[in-house]
């Protein structure tokens, strides 16, 4: 409690002296913005046909080897003086530590370096410790710029990245960092540090303390894999994110995140939104995705949505998403990008705000700049212009709500339009779809595996992907007869299978009678006759009763349970007879 009060008392002092390029552990700042700065620097270099060099340096165990006397000196230089300074210094006097291992404690030993593990002050203390290095670069304007905006050392806590358009200037920046490291008694690892340079015919080398740094084709910065050959320097990011997401899905299989024998897809979707989507989309809101990247993301996401519903590959993508009340993954990326832009314009004294102001004023529509992409998204979703937002930043909550509303509306309308063109989805109720709410087929299903199996058969019938004899004939180009193999009377389509086949009448009758009894108490005589005397209406009632608006939501759920059990019983009978 005392530590927290002490920090709050000195927070304004720290914010005044802190480098504008420090994005870690800072109120109002987002660490991912450091990645956006690198994205803009790379694109700026390509569009101006200039070299660009990124030195990704790694301080060994940075927080654990902070030299206490050096930290106290830096705090004093930052105007944390008097009792404030003495109180902080007292916390690090005679610090004793013991290690617990398998229930046993070691002997105590003095802790002579490093900031306190888990301490409230620790992140701020390290920022003060490293701040003098960043201020040197900032004061001397060493490093790359975007126009007149200095961007030479985008930093997140101990992750310092040196950026320059000149290889000799970059070596000077490395020398300054090594001087600071030697002065403050910490180590820069030459094995873990590297320099990523845009591909060119020129070859350069850089060194730290006489050891040459590696110059790989790819390197990871803040979890974002950068490369030196592509147009945006991020061609490896999406494949890497997909691989990470796939590993996350495998890890969740023990919790039932798989198809037919797993949990209900509405629960699976919740797990995916909580654990998989954040890892899949990490960093994608601060890079420029190509059409190929979007395609790969969408392909993986649609495949995952089909897997958790145990739907075949040939299921219409729109049907797959509408059953779960889900928008395409591309739309989720757009939401994140627009929310990131709002965070930028709300922070008017930041580097990223100045970059946004400059890029929006100077760049043409043909530019690959991230901020021009924001202009395109604002036009696409009919949102306020980014130029307007620079002047009048919206409230965070209102902007997030507005973005979610317009993006959901745009993609829902697009999904509905696409679904109307799919003959297989003509029986699926798409008009009442609400983004974020699963379809009645899955909503009414229980949590037990057997209920999931019943709903799975129903979802295949609703999407037109339950394989019947007519489908086999179509796939074989009519080399297989479309005639029902059970009754031998007519082609086996959905209507024949569910309503007409005489061989399945024994299974059908009890369920139709059950539906009649239930509907009779709800519908008037004329409406009741229209439902059960018309094959089309009866088929619609069984496949997706939510199209009938005279029924309440509770009645939809009850009818759905009856029809799901009915469809599964037909499936079992048909399968056993065809074996």
TrEMBL record:
Domain Reverse transcriptase: 1-213
Protein name: Reverse transcriptase domain-containing protein
InterPro entries given in the database record: RT_dom
Native source organism of the sequence: Mytilus edulis
Source organism, top-level taxon: Eukaryota
């Amino acid at each position: 409690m005392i530590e927290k009060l002490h920090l709050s008392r000195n927070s304004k002092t720290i914010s005044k002296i802190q480098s504008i390029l420090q994005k870690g552990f800072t109120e109002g700042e987002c660490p991912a913005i450091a990645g956006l700065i690198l994205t803009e620097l790379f694109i700026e270099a390509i569009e101006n046909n200039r070299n660009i060099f990124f030195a990704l340096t790694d301080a060994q165990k940075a927080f654990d080897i902070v030299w206490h006397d050096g930290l106290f000196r830096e705090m004093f230089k930052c105007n944390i003086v008097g009792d404030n300074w003495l109180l902080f210094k007292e916390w690090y006097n005679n610090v004793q530590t013991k290690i617990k291992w398998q229930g046993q404690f070691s002997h105590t030993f003095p802790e002579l370096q490093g900031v306190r593990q888990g301490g409230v002050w620790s992140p701020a203390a390290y920022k003060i410790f490293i701040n003098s290095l960043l201020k040197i670069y900032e004061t001397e304007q060493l490093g790359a710029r975007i126009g007149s905006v200095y961007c030479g050392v985008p930093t997140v806590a101990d992750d310092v990245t040196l950026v320059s358009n000149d290889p000799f200037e970059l070596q000077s920046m490395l020398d300054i960092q090594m001087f600071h490291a030697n002065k403050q008694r910490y180590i820069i690892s030459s094995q873990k540090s590297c320099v990523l340079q845009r591909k060119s015919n020129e070859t350069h080398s850089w060194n730290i303390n006489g050891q040459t740094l590696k110059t790989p084709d790819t390197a990871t910065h803040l979890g974002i894999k950068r490369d030196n050959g592509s147009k945006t320097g991020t061609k490896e990011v999406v494949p890497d994110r997909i691989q990470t997401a796939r590993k996350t899905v495998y890890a969740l299989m023990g919790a039932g995140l798989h198809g037919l024998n797993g949990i209900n897809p509405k629960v699976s979707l919740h797990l995916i939104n909580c654990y998989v989507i954040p890892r899949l989309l990490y960093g994608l809101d601060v890079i420029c995705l190509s059409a190929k990247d979007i395609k790969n993301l969408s392909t993986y996401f649609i495949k995952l949505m089909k897997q958790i519903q145990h739907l075949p590959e040939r299921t219409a993508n729109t049907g797959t998403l509408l059953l779960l009340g889900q928008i395409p993954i591309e739309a989720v990326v757009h939401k994140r990008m627009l929310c990131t832009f709002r965070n930028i314009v709300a922070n008017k004294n930041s580097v990223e705000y100045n970059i946004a102001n400059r890029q929006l004023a100077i760049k043409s529509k043909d530019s690959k700049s991230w901020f021009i992409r924001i202009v395109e998204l604002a036009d696409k979703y009919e949102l306020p212009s980014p130029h307007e937002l620079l002047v009048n930043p919206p409230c965070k909550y209102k902007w997030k709500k507005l973005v979610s509303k317009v993006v959901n509306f745009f993609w829902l309308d697009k999904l509905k339009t696409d679904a109307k063109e799919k003959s297989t989805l003509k029986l699926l109720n798409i008009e009442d779809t609400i983004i974020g709410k699963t379809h009645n087929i899955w909503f009414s299903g229980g949590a037990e595996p057997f209920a999931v199996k019943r709903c799975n058969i129903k979802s295949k019938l609703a999407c037109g992907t339950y394989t019947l004899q007519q489908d086999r004939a179509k796939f074989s180009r009519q080399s297989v007869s479309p005639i029902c193999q059970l009754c031998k009377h007519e082609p086996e389509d959905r209507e024949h299978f569910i309503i007409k086949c005489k061989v399945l009448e024994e299974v059908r009758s009890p369920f139709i009678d059950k539906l009649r009894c239930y509907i009779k108490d709800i519908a008037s005589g004329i409406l009741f006759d229209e439902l059960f005397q018309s094959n089309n209406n009866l088929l619609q009632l069984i496949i997706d009763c939510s199209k009938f608006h005279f029924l309440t939501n509770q009645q939809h759920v009850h009818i759905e349970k009856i029809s799901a059990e009915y469809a599964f019983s037909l499936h079992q009978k048909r399968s056993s007879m065809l074996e």
